[in-house]
Structures are given as C-alpha cells and as structure tokens.
Amino acid sequence: MTVTHARTDAPAPLSPEPPAPLHDGSVAALPDAVAVPGYDRSQLEPAVVHIGVGGFHRAHQAVYFDELARAGVSTGWGITGVGLRSPQMGEVLGDQDHLYTLVVRGPEGDDVRVIGSLVRYLFAPDDPEAVLATLADPRTRLVTLTITGSAYPAGEPDPEDPDVRADVATPGTPGTAFGFLVEGLRRRRAAGLAGFTVLSCDNAQHSGDLARAAVLATARLRDVGLAGWIEEQVTFPGSMVDRITPETTPEGRDAIARRHGIDDRWPVITEPFSQWIVEDRFCAGRPPLDEVGVQFVDDVRPFEIMKTRMLNGAHSALGHLASLAGFSTTAEAMADPTIRGFVRGYLHEVARGLLQVPGVDLDAYADTLVERFSNPQISDELARLCRRSSTKVPTYVLPSVQVALDHAGPREHLVLAVAAWMRYLRGTDDDGRALEVTDALADELRALAELGGTDPHPLLGRTDLFGALAATPGFAQELEAALTGLEDGALAAAAALQRDAGVEAQESAA
Ligand SMILES: NC(=O)c1ccc[n+]([C@@H]2O[C@H](COP(=O)([O-])OP(=O)(O)OC[C@H]3O[C@@H](n4cnc5c(N)ncnc54)[C@H](O)[C@@H]3O)[C@@H](O)[C@H]2O)c1
Ligand SMILES: O=P(O)(O)OC[C@@H](O)[C@@H](O)[C@H](O)[C@H](O)CO
Fold first, then answer.
1. Which of 334, 385, 395 best tests ligand 2's pocket when mutated (most atoms within 8 Å of CB)?
2. pTM > 0.90: yes or no
3. What domains does the chain contain, in order, with CATH numbers?
4. Ligand nearest to C-alpha 59
5. H helix or E strand, kind and range, residue 231
6. Residues 278-313 pLDDT 10s
7. Is the beta carbon of 266 within 6 A of some atom in ligand 1?
C-alpha cells in the first residue's frame, strides 16, 4: 500500500485506470455483445444531466432511469453524463456507445445486464460550452450530482480558491460543479426559461440543503439578483441513496470477461440491495421513479441521518479499525468475530442515539448492514472507506458521539472508532505497514496525530473538525484511554470492549 497525501482539489485516486480493451477474439466487445438494453435508446429524451459519473451513479441512479425505459414506463429521462475531473470515464463510455455492464453480485451468483440510460458524455474541461448549453437547454429538467461530500463547501465558498475564482471571473469556463449550475441557470433566466431541479445524490446529512447553499453562495458571488431568481425557480430536494458499490478493479473487469464473455472496459459490480428515498420537490416535473422502487417522502432527513450515521459511520469505523489490524476488504474483516462484534457494538450505540425513523426497525436495519458488509461476493476495499475521512468522520461518526455524550449513552465503540481514525492518520498499521491516507488534510492531520500519540489534544485542537465535541467533558479522557488501548493492537482493543460488555452483562444478570 502507498501513503498518498493527496489534496481533494486534485483528482482523487478514484478508480483504477480503465483497462485496455481485450479484443483478443475470446470475448465480445460492447456494444456488439448486447445490441440494445431492451428498449430503443434513440427514443430517450435527454432530460437529466448528471455531474460526477463514477461507479455509484452507474450502479444506482442510471439503473433506475434504465428501469423506467426498460419497463416501458417512460423514455423521458435519458442522461447526459458530465465529468469535471478526469477524462477516462468519457473516453471509455464513448468507445462503448455509452453502454456499460452492471453486475449485481448476490448469493445466487451474478445478475448481468447492460445499462442504456446514459446517452451522452461531456468532459467539461474539454468543452465547457457544451455543458453550459446542455444545462441551458429547455429539455433539461433535472440535474443530479455525485461529486463526493468534499466538493460541497463547508460554509461560504472560498473566493481565493482558483476553481471558485473561475466560477466568478470566467463563468464561461467555471471551475466547480456549482459554477456550472449557476452559469447554466443564468442562461436559462436570460432566455426566459424556468429552472431545473438539482438533486444531490452524495452521502450527506441534508444533501439538498448543502447543494442549495453551495449554488446560492456561488450565485451571490456573481449577482444577487440571479441568486434571488434561483431561490424562486430551483428546488433542491434531499435524497437518501444506498447501494454498496466498490471500485472496479482490472481483476474484476477481467473476471467479468471470463465468466460472462463481455469485454467491457469499465463495468460496475454492485450488491443486490438498492435504496433511493427522495423528497418530493421537483420544480420541472418529477420522473415517475416510484414506478421502479424509489420512495418519495416529504422529509428525507430522518432517513439520511439513519443511513449516514449507521451505514457510513460503521463503514468508517470498520475501515479504520480493520485496516490497522491488517485486513484489506470488508468481507475479510467481517469474517473475523472480533471485528464483526465491534461493528455490531458500534451500530447498537448509534441506534441508541437516533430518533424514530418512520417505518424502520433500527435493530433489523443494523442486522441487514452486518449482513451486507459481510457479503463475500463483493470485494470492497477498506481503503475506499478510509478516503476523505476528514470530511466523512465529522459527518458520519462525530454526531453520534456527541449525542451519546450528551445523553450519557453507551459510547465505547464510538470512541474507539474515533481513536482508530486518529491512529490511522499516523499512516501505518499495527505491523508497521504503510496505510493509504488520501485526504485533503493528510499532511496536517498526520503531523498532529504523530505529535499527540496517545494524547488526542493536538487533533482535538482542530475545532473545524471536532466543533463543540472537543470540549465536551470526558471526551478527551475517553479518547486517550482508547488510543492507549490501541497501542496493544486494534484487535486487542476491540476484544477488550467485548470482554467488558460480557462482564457487565454477567454482573447485571447476577
Ligand atoms: N460507492 C458507493 O458505495 C456509494 C454509495 C452511496 C453513495 N455514494 C456517493 O456517491 C459519490 C460518488 O461515489 P463513487 O463511489 O461513485 O465514487 P467515484 O470515485 O467512482 O466517482 C466520484 C465522481 O465524482 C467526481 N468528483 C470528485 N470530486 C469532484 C469535485 N470536487 N467536483 C466534481 N466532481 C468530482 C469524480 O470525477 C467522479 O466522477 C460519493 O459522494 C459517495 O459518497 C457512493
Ligand atoms: O462514499 P463515501 O466515501 O462517502 O463513503 C464510503 C462508503 O461508506 C459508502 O460509499 C457506502 O458504500 C455507500 O454509502 C453505501 O450506500
């Protein structure tokens, strides 16, 4: 493994380089392998623009739109994919007529199909004008985003940031997704058109509010009147999205070619589970996604909070702790009873701090998460779960710790998860092997983690990450104890929690 001190404004090491075509005659190339995905793609109307076409979009939103067309419900929602950061996805999709293979990997084996809802792909740095023209096109009714949580400014956008400067000073060649949205909307306003819906599909608590705040703040930097028009004309529904989608590796790609005889340079492998809950606030027409399993609600926040704190929080906790213990994938780590017990304990503590979620039994939800994380058919790298943790831990983990401290709730697993992140930041596992630390703040946080050792105070000084939690009585001492426990190794620290829980259970039974 390598230690990567990457800045998030550099393209993240998102996916492996797309593998070269096989074309050795042993397999059929897309789109020859499957001529059409079951409907006439020429009928698809380009009503959706999606920014950030990665693995998840192709395993989730694009699949729902594909199902709409496949089931004959509607061909009104074809997708124009837009990339801002790396050109490879566009190159691969361009070679495949924008078709790609979705492999749903469950206990019964692989379900393989070709997805056809992406009709076009634009790499913004090559042709910003085409992207802006598409956003200003009257046919565009919905813009969806999966640009990672780090792309949303915490507070106001930094006017000194070169990308934000481009959004304002050279709006014909914007630097950020929000700059593109604002200029696209400005052109619509100038042309007398209405707005479009902006639907964030990034994992976040209040994803819609984050997108709205970022778009309005970017607009205000340009023109207060434009910002006011956007407030009136554009809706930003929140959404809860869920489908565990690992990065596609060359090995995964080659296995698909061998097993299924399809030469797809960048297929997507995902799990059977899929969930999408969306707030019903669409200003330019709502796609009939309820016909294909999407749930529309008035307020998505309880679902977002549950999902980010339970699933994503447990993923972060598992990622850091199991990486320290030397594991590489979720399934491998979850097969270890100590790690599995730690994840269960973590989920239990989070659930204790959650309010009721409509129609959800949190214990049953926790059980499904343990099962999904353990899926041996899916090879999900722990390293993926540990990227951009300075954005993720404050969103996914720390709110649960705060709730537990405020209500004197059980929190040993939560605190160990924070300690494991701090220990992980030092960049080596329990056997001294290098860990991948891919984070905008990697260098700064590593220095603080090394300075502190088992003393969390240098890291807790980062109030931009810890907020009021840093000063919450008892937290620093509990963290210090957990960091000290980790000196014996991650597995030993997790096992100690299980021993303590066993003793407590015996005492209360007695
Ligand atoms: N993979 C999953 O299991 C999963 C599930 C639910 C939600 N998500 C969310 O979906 C988003 C994308 O995840 P993914 O797994 O597809 O990752 P990915 O790395 O495959 O794709 C990320 C995409 O975002 C783009 N991007 C990154 N930073 C950007 C920026 N600052 N501005 C514009 N574009 C940017 C990349 O170019 C890429 O197209 C994340 O927010 C993630 O939390 C992922
Ligand atoms: O996507 P991230 O990096 O914010 O978080 C990593 C994982 O927890 C996440 O991708 C999950 O797999 C996903 O949210 C499941 O729906």
1. 385
2. yes
3. 43-297 (3.40.50.720), 301-505 (1.10.1040.10)
4. 1
5. helix 224-233
6. 999 999 999 999 999 999 999 999 999 999 999 999
7. no
